[in-house]
Amino acid sequence: MEIQLGNEEIMRLKLVSKFFKGFADYSRLCIFQSLMDGEKTVTEIIDYTGFSQSKISNHLKCLRESDLVEARQDGKFIYYEIKDEKIKTILGIAAEVIKDVSEEKLNCMK
Questions:
Q1: CA-CA distance, 5 to 96, in Å (whole number)?
Q2: Nearest Cα to 35, choosing from 60, 54, 15, 17?
Q3: What is the pLDDT of residues 44-84, one digit of tens each?
Q4: Distance of alpha carbon 74 from alpha carbon 93, whole angstroms
Q5: Which residues contact residue 25 at a Cβ distance below 8 angstroms, ignoring those fewer than 6 apart?
Q6: Residue 103 CB burial class (10 angstroms; 0-12, 13-18, ≥19)
Q7: 81 — alpha (psi -120 to 50), left (phi > 0) or beta?
Q8: What one-character DSSP code corresponds to residue 38?
Q9: N or C: which end of the chain has fewer CB within 10 A?
Q10: Torsions phi, psi of 76, nearest 5?
Q11: Rounded to two decimals, what is the model's pTM?
């Protein structure tokens, strides 16, 4: 029996795909890591990651479009922060899963 997705389900899955796109890049994960303890300016993110200003700006644009990061202007500075605390939870769970999987692989190799 074949089940087909409805338009609403297709749209929801496309949104989920766009959401996870924000996590699917090493540079963006480094930006997330820099923001885990609070908001930062682009300069502070550059100092943390060592990436160029243009690279950070491009990835921040992607993260903002994916609604994962938000920006706040204060005078001439723009501060970026993780939009929702649940995103930090997702990143923490991902780290735990990877640690568990890595330990299982290591145990299998012994």
A1: 32
A2: 60
A3: 999 999 999 999 999 999 899 888 999 999 999 999 999 99
A4: 33
A5: 59, 62
A6: exposed
A7: beta
A8: S
A9: N
A10: -90, -5
A11: 0.81
Tell which residue, 57, 80, 54, has the closest CA to residue 68: 80
* Cα separations in angstroms, 91 against 4, 6, 23, 72, 86: 32, 30, 9, 23, 9
Residue 63 token pair: 């993260």
Neighbours of 74 (CB within 10 A): 9
Report which residue type is found at 10.
I
Q: Which residue has the tokens 């990143």?
A: 91
Measure the CA–CA gap between 98 and 36, rounded to whole angstroms: 18
Cite the DSSP H helix spans in 1-110: 7-21, 26-35, 42-49, 53-65, 85-109
| Confidence category of residue 110, pLDDT binned at 50, 70, 90 | low
